[in-house]
Design goal:
Blueprint: H1 3-11, E1 15-19, H2 26-37, E2 41-43, E3 46-48, E4 62-64, H3 67-75, E5 79-85, E6 88-93, H4 94-102, E7 106-110, H5 113-122, E8 127-132, H6 136-146, H7 151-165, E9 173-176, H8 180-194
Parallel strand pairs: 1-7, 1-8, 2-7, 3-4, 8-9
Antiparallel strand pairs: 3-6, 5-6
Helix pairs in contact: 2-8
Bound molecules: guanosine-5'-monophosphate.
Length: 200
């Protein structure tokens, strides 16, 4: 990459969209990548109408909103995208996204396949990365180990996973999360190829 390209690419923040089925490990992977590239890369905290799981904290993992408040925020155009996933609302606050990109800070979004399609329309420069499990059996095992969902939720998440994986062809990069360190290394190399070439 020549110097001109580097300057060009660093002028404005880059938007990275990470998707993948529930239980694939994308939240932990995303946290690792954000901490590695911080402060030039930040995590987009989504809003959701689902209840907090385990140790999740409001404002850190999600902004937990009542369903009615989420619907008000939709009507006030507060989201860059929103979707109904597994029966709950999820959405990306627009102001956080735009203010960081304008400050040349890149943003990592962990959103579902519907949200990724909407973002690709409004932010065509976005880089889309899909995380795959090594197999459906491993995915089920990870969801069961996580032990945070009811059996009904778990069945819904597994059946949605098959549908979500069909969308992987819409993404620029595929990463299989078989081994955590290997997946992190692959992701670092992908991110470095777009931003922060000095970290490659
Ligand atoms: P979970 O309930 O397991 O935290 O997330 C369920 C799904 O919702 C995941 O696939 C996650 O990527 C997706 N998701 C989280 N935040 C957003 C968002 O802001 N928008 C969209 N479209 N999907 C989201």
């Amino acid at each position: 990459m020549n110097t001109e390209n580097v300057i060009q690419k660093n002028r404005k923040g880059r938007l990275f969209v990470v998707s993948g089925p529930s239980g694939v490990g994308k939240t932990v992977l995303a946290a690792e990548i954000v901490s590695f590239f911080s402060p030039g890369l930040v995590y987009s905290v989504s809003a959701t109408s689902r209840n907090p799981r385990g140790n999740e904290k409001d404002g850190k993992d999600y902004f937990f909103l009542a369903k009615g408040d989420f619907e008000t925020a939709i009507s006030e155009n507060k989201f860059a995208e929103w979707a109904l996933v597994h029966g709950n609302y999820y959405g990306t606050p627009k102001s956080f996204l735009d203010s960081n990109l304008e400050k040349s800070i890149s943003v990592l979004m962990n959103i579902d396949v519907q949200g990724a399609d909407k973002i690709a329309e409004s932010y065509p420069e976005s880089v889309k990365i899909f995380i795959l499990p090594p197999s459906m059996d491993v995915l089920e095992e990870r969801l069961r180990k996580r032990n945070m969902d009811s059996e009904k939720d778990l069945v819904k998440r597994l059946s949605n996973a098959k549908e979500e994986i069909l969308h992987k062809t819409n993404y620029h990069h595929l990463v299989i999360n078989d081994n955590f360190d290997k997946a992190v290394a692959e992701l670092k190399s992908i991110f470095s190829s777009y931003i922060f070439p000095e970290k490659a």
